[in-house]
Amino acid sequence: MKDLFGKAILDYQLGNYTEDIKTETSISEEDDLPLPYLFRSFKEMPQLEQKALQLAKGKVLDVGCGAGSHSLYLQDEKKLAVTSVDISPNAIEACKLRGLKDARFLDIMTLENEKFDTILLLMNGAGMCGRLDKLGEFLLKIKSLVAEYGQVLLDSSDIIYMFEDDEEDGGVWIPADKDYYGEVDYIVRYKGETEPAFDWMYIDYNTLKKAAEYNGFTCELILEGEHYDYLAKLTLA
């Protein structure tokens, strides 16, 4: 991996901001992701993220922390102990420069022998497992890291609307090359370079709930957004 996402984050942190990240998926055209958005303050965050941060408590694990904006709010404003992890070494370097006390370059699937009261999977963090057939393994790993009375707070979106037919019958067209309509191939471009496509997934709430309950969680819908997005809380069953 070229770590273009992380390079862009680090560029912004070091004052080398000249252009935004471009993203594209197998079901959507290229779009700009403004780098300043990744460095947003609490007041600039969507309501779902604000609610998750308000609910966070105890020892926190921020999975896929990116530029670390969620972690910084919890560490500096709520005075919580936060461990921030990401598979991007450049993003983690930026997080450390921003003042995060415990930012680690690692894959969440390799983390062991620690327990957390709150685990954050924000900005569609539930989709980082990439494919629906990997969700069970991912949830079991997360489960192994949750303290007895802990919680997992995650957001995602139901993208079924992207397949709706314009005809009056209200039908939907589902691509045959994927096991689940929320699975996409994700591409990142930055400063003339292109990252190889990687697996990503948007998961609807009902599918998440079934998978969570099958793997030993209780799943609760906390908040619904304005565009098919939602915030959910998982606790040990």
Automatic annotation (TrEMBL):
The keyword Zinc does not apply. It holds the Pfam family Methyltransf_31. It comes from the Bacteria. GO terms for molecular function: methyltransferase activity. InterPro entries: Methyltranfer_dom, SAM-dependent_MTases_sf. Gene3D superfamilies: Vaccinia Virus protein VP39. Residues 58-164 form the Methyltransferase domain. SUPFAM superfamilies: S-adenosyl-L-methionine-dependent methyltransferases. GO terms for biological process: methylation. Keywords: Methyltransferase, Transferase. This is Methyltransferase domain-containing protein. It comes from Pustulibacterium marinum.
